[in-house]
Amino acid sequence: MPSLVVKSEQMPLPIDLSSLTSMPKLSDQQFYNFCRTNPDLRIERNANGEIIVMPPAFSDTGNRNGRVFGQLFVWSEADGTGEAFDSSAGFTLPNGAVRSPDASWILSERWNALLPEKQASFAEIVPELCCGIAIEQRYVGESARKAGGIYCQ
Questions:
Q1: Could you write out the DSSP letters of every residue in 95-118?
Q2: I need a labelling partner for 73 at 20 to 30 A (CA). Which of 14, 95, 101, 131 fits?
């Protein structure tokens, strides 16, 4: 049954979405439509098919995020061999998860090999580089699990 995990300060709050669909998991198209219907939400999907809705980043985190992406973007432009992506970009990973790293980079050769319609969706590609910013010490473990278990395929 589809489920939704809402990240909160205290603990994840699972919400049963079984009334929305009779399918055991949202299909890629259903997930895409859900994201398009809710453009103001930060939405990811883990390898188990659970939908994760996250609050906006805190201001200081957004500032650090901007600095990391800014440096990556400047380097990427100077290097010329790849494309830099900010935290709004979602990627479909081999395990079925759709994740949005805080900043990421993909070789141009691999990015350009994707069809334009794949680039305009949650591209099925694992970036060469993914950056994640832990907002507080207690979230470092979560960031490490996300990076180690999700991006390092």
A1: TS-EE--SEEEEEHHHHHTS-HHH
A2: 95
